[in-house]
Design brief:
The chain is mostly helical. The radius of gyration is 32 Å and the shape is elongated. The longest helix is centred in the N-terminal third of the chain and has 68 residues. The chain has nine helices and no strands.
C-alpha cells in the first residue's frame, strides 16, 4: 500500500469517527431542525393557500354585492356588504364600507350615507387614500344638505397643495360657500382650482363656469 493510500484511508476513518461523534452528540438536534424546516415549509404553503382562498372568496362576495346593487336590489346589496365588512379579507372590508355608503346615497338615505362616509374618513385603520375619498363623498352630499362649516369639517384639511384630492375638496368648499351666499369665499376656492396645474379637465371647467356665474352676479366683491 502506498503512503498516499494509507494516508487517505486514515483520513476517511477519522472523518467517519468524527461524523459518528457529531451524530451521537447533535443527532437529535439535527433531526429537530429538519422537522422544523419541513413543518415550517408546510405551514407557509398552507398559509399561502389560505390567503389566496380568502381573497378569492371576498372578491367573489364583493362582486356579487355590486351586481345586486346594479340590479336595484339595494337591501340585499347592503346586507351582503355589511357581512363583508365583518368577515372580509384584506382591503375588502374597507371597500365594502365605502360601497355600502354609496348604496345608501343611491337609495336617497343621505343622512345615513354621510354618517358612514364620515366614519370611514376618520377611521385610522382605513388606508389614507380611502379615508380622503370618503371625506370627499361626505362633503359633496353635505353641499346639498349641510352648511359650509359641515363641508369644511370634512375636507378643508385635505385642500392643501400637497394633497392629490385637493381639487375635489376645493370644489366642494366652493360650492358650499356659493350656496351659502359667500361669493368672495366661493370665488377664492374656484380660482385656486383654475390656477392649479394637473387638475382634471372636468373640475377645471366646472370651476370656470362657477367663476363666470359669480362674475355675472356683480356682487362677489361685496361679500365677506
Amino acid at each position: 500500500m502506498s503512503d498516499d493510500s494509507f494516508i487517505r484511508e486514515v483520513d476517511e476513518e477519522l472523518r467517519s469517527d468524527q461524523m459518528k461523534s457529531i451524530w451521537k452528540r447533535f443527532g437529535k438536534y439535527i433531526i429537530g431542525i429538519a422537522v422544523l424546516i419541513v413543518v415550517g415549509t408546510g405551514a407557509f404553503r398552507g398559509y399561502e393557500y389560505w390567503t389566496k382562498s380568502e381573497a378569492s372568496r371576498s372578491g367573489d362576495a364583493f362582486l356579487a354585492a355590486l351586481n345586486l346593487a346594479r340590479e336595484g336590489k339595494q337591501y340585499e346589496a347592503l346586507t351582503a356588504l355589511r357581512e363583508l365588512e365583518k368577515d372580509g379579507y384584506g382591503s375588502y372590508p374597507a371597500l365594502a364600507r365605502m360601497r355600502a355608503a354609496t348604496v345608501l346615497a343611491d337609495a336617497g338615505d343621505n343622512d345615513a350615507a354621510i354618517s358612514d362616509f364620515s366614519t370611514i374618513g376618520s377611521d385610522s385603520s382605513v388606508p389614507a387614500a380611502v379615508r380622503d375619498i370618503a371625506r370627499i363623498r361626505a362633503a359633496y352630499l353635505l353641499v346639498d344638505s349641510g352648511s359650509y362649516d359641515d363641508v369644511s369639517v370634512q375636507v378643508e384639511s385635505i385642500s392643501g397643495a400637497d394633497n392629490p384630492m385637493r381639487h375635489s375638496a376645493r370644489e366642494a368648499l366652493g360650492l358650499a360657500a356659493w350656496k351659502a351666499g359667500e361669493l368672495t369665499q366661493a370665488r377664492q376656492w374656484f380660482e385656486q382650482i383654475v390656477g392649479d396645474t394637473g387638475v382634471p379637465a372636468g373640475i377645471t371647467q366646472r370651476a370656470q363656469m362657477m367663476l363666470d356665474i359669480i362674475a355675472a352676479s356683480g356682487n362677489a366683491g361685496q361679500q365677506s
